[in-house]
UniProtKB/TrEMBL annotation, chain A:
It is a multi-pass membrane protein. One of its GO terms (cellular component) is plasma membrane. GO terms for biological process: phosphate ion transmembrane transport. Gene3D superfamilies: MetI-like. Residues 144-355 form the ABC transmembrane type-1 domain. The keyword NAD does not apply. This is Phosphate transport system permease protein PstA.
């Protein structure tokens, strides 16, 4: 064994290579020196991690430079940077999720949080719950109702329009000037900032019905502006990958074009379209700015999208944090906000999972 | 938004759609029904509906522009002494535009290198099984609503950054952007920019990864066969191929960062335009609208809508620029 190992070390191929324990040795040096350095400036785990990573990179790369030469050293340096970038990203993103879970679970587990609204909950109740330690009153039922209704109406409007538009782009308008204009406009719409969509809906309804028209439906129109381009883009992509042979086979059998589209093209692409629509819903369900400008600020349950203000989960979170119900004791409001944030994240995650499952389960079967 | 399209395409593309052919053998009776004469009207109705839907999109976008302009006009035409407490519209909007651009620029400065690194890690460094899971996680993170990032920024990040700001202002205080005294709450433009960066990283990453994965395998293998190290292979084969795609991904992130409202509205303690990023102050257009809209009426409402129009034009310019960059390189890359 040792004879083989020594002879292998001497061959030309392995001559200028770092020993296999090099990364671990560098890591150990990095951790020790990093701990020492971070103790000098005041120890915490974050500082230790940062210093260790920097020392590790320096030791490992310069060792490699001394033994293996500049090219290998640069390669190792790039690897360190890439892995470092990944770690740098993972930390804040997990911190976000951790913060929401940590703050949200308490709010979510408060009895009545999901089933009650904020109707009648004012600073007095919040002060009392802080002073006496009783449970925090008030919940998000009205916001859940509002979010679901507004998103439902936005979906009802934008899915037919978006789907028909993509059918036009793929089946009817191939290469025509109108199709090109629509493609360009859809791209432009994709880039509309969400707050501008909200301003548009507010301005539209203010012009038609007079200023101050703030209902759930106005918010749904604002979300439609954001949702249509997503639906068009994803359905168009899906319809385009339906093989032309299927259409031609249908035409050859004498089937009319509209029936071909309805019975052959769309059923083939339906899994992709459905998953695209679900992702579009997941995207608009968390939009805050447009609803903030269009649906007002409600604390009561409202099932009617055509009249009166309506709450939604994102605006609920926003208002609870920015204007706590009891300005002197913001803690109950913060707790409710995190509870709502957790519910909202759960909604979004479920929609994303559903989109993936739909794409997988309803995908066209391959073979028998 | 491109993300969504990619995602769904990825979900379905792998499967052989032609296989449906075997699944839909039409029985003769059904065929006769399908091809019967009564379908003629249906053809017209259906193509008409499709055309109408397409036209609606054109109408909607024109309507967005028209209504914004109509509602913004009073603010632009009224005597300037009545706008924004006698400031006049342009002096009012200028600091907001500068603040918006600075916040977005810093966010991209942070996010771009990190996103490219993460995308490379997922596409070329991580083991295959791990990279699939990571790609999935990144997609999920891109879907987290912005208000949650804002809440995280105000409750966790801002206080956590205060020691860093204190150190920065004492060590580098002679540079105007790090001038002290630093904000005690950490609610500064730099914090807002970092939150924006965290928000756009998943977006830029998922587009970049998609493009890195499309690099022709033969180019990569040729580079490796010539003795290139992995980093040299990436520099020679992957990055040149992906450059227009990276640019368009960054532009997509820029559009998002420019128009992002909630994170800034929650995190930033706003004020007049100042050079220092460590003190509270500065404001962006979107956050200004969100904070003032609920109480606005009359001419101040028109002013906010005019501000929205300016934001619309800025993001429109960015998007058209991105499209132009992509179309210039379209033939050579996988970025279309």
């Amino acid at each position: 064994m040792t004879a083989i190992a020594t002879s292998r070390r001497r061959t030309a191929l392995t001559r200028n290579r770092l020993p296999r324990y090099a990364p671990w040795a560098s890591l150990a040096v990095g951790l020790v020196v990093g701990a020492a350095l971070s103790t000098l400036v005041g120890f915490n785990f974050f500082g230790w991690g940062v210093f260790s990573a920097i020392i590790y990179t320096i030791v490992y790369v310069s060792w490699s430079g001394a033994v293996e030469g500049g090219r290998k050293a640069r390669d190792k340096f790039a690897t360190c940077l890439v892995v470092g970038a990944f770690i740098v990203v993972v930390l804040p993103l997990f911190s976000v999720i951790w913060t929401v879970l940590e703050g949200g679970i308490k709010g979510l587990l408060t009895p009545g949080f999901l089933g009650t609204s904020m109707n009648g909950v004012s600073g007095i109740q919040d002060n009392e719950s802080v002073n006496t330690g009783s449970r925090v009153l008030g919940g998000i039922y009205h916001a859940i109702v509002g979010t679901l209704l507004i998103t439902l109406w936005a979906t009802i409007i934008s899915v037919p329009v978006g789907l028909l538009t993509s059918v036009y782009l793929v089946e009817y308008g191939q290469g025509s000037r109108l199709a090109k204009a629509i493609t360009l406009f859809v791209d432009v719409m994709t880039g509309i900032p969400s707050i501008v969509a909200g301003l548009f809906a507010a301005a539209l309804f203010a012009t038609i019905f007079g200023p101050g028209t703030e209902t759930g439906f106005v918010a749904a129109v604002a979300l439609t502006v954001l949702m249509i381009p997503v639906v068009v883009r994803s359905s168009e992509e899906m319809l385009r990958i339906v093989p032309n042979e299927l259409r031609e086979a249908a035409y050859a059998l004498g089937v009319r074009k509209w029936r071909t589209i309805l019975k052959v093209v769309i059923p083939t692409a339906i899994s992709g379209i459905a998953s695209g629509v679900t992702l579009a819903i997941a995207r608009v369900i968390g939009e805050t700015a447009p609803i903030l400008l269009t649906a007002g600020f409600a604390t009561k349950i409202n099932y009617n999208v055509f009249s009166d203000w309506m709450a939604s989960l994102p605006t609920y979170i926003y208002f609870q944090i920015l204007n706590p119900t009891s300005p002197s004791n913001p803690d109950p409001s913060i707790q409710r906000a995190w509870g709502a944030a957790l519910v909202l994240i759960i909604f979004v995650m479920i929609l994303n999972l559903v989109a993936r499952l739909v794409a997988r389960i309803f995908a066209p079967k391959t073979g028998r | 938004m491109t993300r969504t399209v990619h995602e769904t395409a990825r979900a379905t593309k792998g499967r052989d759609l032609t296989a449906t052919e075997t699944k839909t053998p039409e029985s003769p009776g059904r065929l006769r029904a399908l091809s019967s004469r009564q379908g003629a009207a249906g053809d017209k109705v259906f193509s008409g509906a499709a055309l109408a839907a397409g036209a609606i999109i054109l109408v909607v976008l024109v309507a967005v522009a028209v209504f914004l302009v109509v509602q913004a006009m009073p603010a632009l035409l009224a005597p300037q002494s009545q706008i924004a407490n006698g400031e006049g519209f342009w002096p009012y909007i200028f600091p907001l535009v500068v603040g918006t651009i600075i916040a977005a620029a810093i966010a991209l400065l942070i996010a771009t290198p990190i996103s490219i690194g993460v995308a490379l890690f997922i596409s070329h460094y991580a083991p295959r099984r791990l990279s699939q899971i990571l790609g999935y996680i990144i997609d999920l993170l891109a879907a987290i609503p912005s208000v949650i990032f804002g809440a995280w920024g105000i409750s966790f990040l801002a206080p956590a950054l205060v020691p860093g700001y204190t150190w920065l202002s004492s060590a580098l205080g002679w540079i105007p952007i790090f001038a002290g005294p630093p904000s005690a709450t950490g609610k500064t433009l730099l914090t807002a920019s970092i939150v924006l960066a965290v928000m756009v990283i998943p977006i830029i990453t998922s587009v970049c990864r998609e493009i890195f994965l499309q690099t022709p395998k033969l180019h990569e293998e040729a580079a490796l066969a010539l003795g290139a190290t992995r980093w040299e292979m990436i520099r020679m084969a992957v990055l040149p191929f992906a450059r227009p795609g990276i640019i368009s991904a960054v532009m997509l992130g820029l559009g998002r960062a420019l128009g992002e409202t909630m994170a800034v509205a929650l995190v930033l303690s706003s004020g007049p335009l100042i050079a220092s990023l460590l003190q509270s102050g500065n404001q962006t257009i979107a956050a200004e609208i969100a904070l003032n809209f609920p109480e606005a009426s009359g001419l101040s409402l028109n002013t906010l809508i005019a501000a929205g129009l300016v934001l619309f034009i800025v993001t429109l310019a960015v998007n058209l620029l991105a499209r132009w960059v992509i179309s210039r390189h379209k033939e050579f890359s996988g970025a279309n």
